[in-house]
# Entry
Amino acid sequence: MNRWGLVAVSFFGWAFWAFATKIVSSRMHPLAMQISSATLGLLCMPFFISVLRSDKSVQYSWPGIAWAIAGGIAGVSAYMAYSYALKTGEIGTISIITSCYPILTCIAAIAFLGEPITIFKVLGIASIVLGVVLMSH
# Structure
């Protein structure tokens, strides 16, 4: 699958995931949701391992492993916080605000990875902020 196909799968998958998580939050405790998701991830491990074994370009390094662990902890923490927030809040507002994380990602990429600042990135960030303000009211 090409890059844009993968982006489309991510886009629609995350949209459905946010909606489904709101439905589940009224029927399960957030910790039970986390356990269910982790169990699904563990059940997928044989597939993931087979893909890794067939890919000769896979490389491992201790810094890479450390960043993967840190990212995993951040992701689990974000998922838990999002799940708890949905128990009492509106999905429209919560999903819009939490979906603004690309702003921080873009700023971090510019600051730490040396990605260029472009007018389109600045306009994109401004559009996101404006959209959140409009959607939250």
Remarks:
- The chain has a mean pLDDT of 88.
- Residues 1-53+60-89 form one domain.
